[in-house]
Amino acid sequence: xxxxxxxxxxxxxxxxxxxxxxxxxxxxxxxxxxxxxxxxxxxxxxxxxxxxxxxxxxxxxxxxxxxxxxxxxxxxxxxxxxxxxxxxxxxxxxxxxxxxxxxxxxxxxxxxxxxxxxxxxxxxxxxxxxxxxxxxxxxxxxxxxxxxxxxxxxxxxxxxxxxxxxxxxxxxxxxxxx
Length: 178
Prior knowledge:
Blueprint: H1 2-24, E1 30-34, H2 44-48, E2 51-58, E3 62-70, E4 92-95, E5 101-105, E6 109-118, E7 121-131, E8 137-148, E9 154-162, E10 169-177
Antiparallel strand pairs: 1-2, 1-10, 2-3, 3-4, 5-6, 6-7, 7-8, 8-9, 9-10
């Protein structure tokens, strides 16, 4: 009887380890086009764009997202609002082991990035801080929870931003794989 419980316990532990490994191995790599009709809470810049694409590269250790917004006009006053804070120019790279990375941004700004697995989703956190023209310290925090559809053809990013203009915002970005 003890042997049966030991075998059942080992099989359960093995099954959980396989499940954890498969969740952590979700691959978001590819080129993704924003589906504005299925997305919610888009900021004016994304809503007015002709095309929004994310190009994601991923290996076992890192993932980077390069967002391109084509066409449309930036909103008066520089934007803000839902759909995520405007990302820095160029790709944003995250370490997939859960450790933080930091980078200096122009004009004394700093960006801290962290990726953590939450079940079968990948949660990306970005904190930016800089000194405004009036000398005050400004900070914004954005969290994106990425998940893939069962067939891997739809990427959903649930975005929460705080510290930008107009207070906290929430949005859901839906992308189709190209």
